[in-house]
Design goal:
- It is a single chain.
- With 267 residues, this protein is an alpha/beta fold.
- Helices cover 42% and strands 17% of the residues.
- The strands form 2 sheets. It has a 7-stranded mixed sheet, with helices on both faces. A 3-stranded antiparallel sheet has the order 1-2-6, with helices on one face.
- Helix 9 links the parallel strand 9 and strand 10.
- The two termini are 27 Å apart.
């Protein structure tokens, strides 16, 4: 689907007569991010997956198209083109930050929202500047990892981060890595530079005004995001927090059945 500077790659799963869920994947993911969870939802929901800019097979014609406000507008244009007036929305990590932006800017388009391991961004200028510097270092490493072996080493190091817990021991970890390897590291670096946590607009103040029910999912072993999400429920009474046992940042992989049950119950 093309909207001037975007050629968005997307796919549907499930039954068209069922309620629709728009899924937004995390950094280095693609339209296959939620495959296992969606396979358990297709009797009850119609699921729309999109390769976000810099990921998968989506192509864009201008670097500005990597920025959150522009991506949000492109997604709303896609919903319009597909004649989807309102839907449910699920976002993971980077996709969760984008989902929150969509919720706050286009509240009339969504029934309810689930944010997995997400945040409203960073509140202070100092925090954002420090994060931009750190993301730039990571982006440079990514952009140099154009050979498959180098990219694989980058991914191995990436998933050593504390927020991912014991994900490397998961039986589906290698399949997840294989999906990540389908991406272009140079485009991923652009995504990090232009839509990373440091560069995105802070949504903390706008979150106070939210009027849509939001379920916040965080893994008990992802201490950083447990703290962030506890602050979020203190800011807005329509945010509900569910801490998932035996999971870290990637709940939909580590605890798929619990993840699916939360979607079924909340939606």
């Amino acid at each position: 689907m093309s909207f001037h500077k975007y050629i968005l790659n997307y796919c549907f799963s499930g039954k068209p007569d069922k309620p629709l869920i728009l899924f937004l994947h995390g950094f280095m993911g693609n339209i296959h991010e939620f495959d296992e969870a969606i396979s358990l939802l297709t009797d009850e929901f119609y699921c729309l997956n999109i390769d976000l800019p810099g990921h998968g097979k989506t192509n864009i014609l201008d670097d500005d198209c990597y920025k959150m406000p522009q991506i949000a507008d492109a997604l709303i244009n896609l919903l319009d083109e597909l004649q989807i007036e309102r839907c449910f929305l699920v976002g993971y990590s980077m996709g969760g930050r984008l989902a929150l932006y969509l919720t706050l800017k286009f509240p009339q388009r969504f029934h309810k929202i689930i944010l997995e391991s997400a945040s409203p961004g960073l509140a202070s200028d100092k925090e954002r500047l420090e994060r931009v510097k750190r993301d730039e270092q990571i982006a440079r490493k990514l952009a140099r990892s154009i050979q498959r072996d180098d990219f694989r080493k980058f991914l191995d190091n990436w998933y050593n981060q504390q927020i991912f817990g014991n994900i490397k021991n998961h039986p589906h970890f290698e399949q997840m890595i294989e999906n990540r390897l389908q991406n272009n590291p140079v485009k991923l670096a652009k995504s990090l530079r232009l839509m990373g946590t440091g560069i995105q607009p802070s949504l903390w103040d706008k979150l106070k005004e939210n009027k849509i029910p939001i379920l916040l999912l965080v893994g008990e072993n992802d201490k950083k995001f447990v703290e962030i999400n506890r602050k979020m429920i203190a800011v807005n009474h329509l945010c509900e927090l569910q801490i998932v046992d035996n999971a870290a940042h990637n709940i939909h992989l580590e605890q798929t059945s619990v993840y699916v049950r939360n979607i079924q119950d909340f939606f």
